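Working notes for the structural subgroup meeting. M.R. asked for a predicted model of this chain before we commit to crystallization trials. I am recording the input and output together here so anyone reviewing the notebook later can reproduce the run.

Input as submitted:
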Amino acid sequence: MNKRLLFLLVLFAGISISFTNASDPNWTGIFDNDQITIEVSENRCINSKQGTDNIYLFLKVTNKTAEKINVSFLKEVWYNEKCFSCDHPAEYTSTITLEPNGVMEGNCENLNSPLKIFKSMPSGFSKNVLTNYELKNIVVKTVD
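Returned structure, recorded in token form:
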């Protein structure tokens, strides 16, 4: 019985640290109008299963209207003072859909989300470090 209990404890511990957000998000506003608010938060994501330890900027978009909307934006990102997205804007343009008064935010569990920006690897595996970012061409459209 003790072996079974130990196995279950190890299993649940492994599941709980597969995706670890090392800090609670502290959101900072970067865009605000009468329809949406966009905030950003820096977070460290450790995925022990995949062996990754990365820092991301997560975006949180809040729909302040009573209508369903699409929000599109271009993420301009600079790594080591070089703009990676300037020559390929289509690859860095994202569109999300928000329900009335809805909120959508990036997180460690969904790293393919358009609401994330890679910042760095604290373990030093990549020399690319985010030196600047900007959201451009922010467009909000009501969904019929």
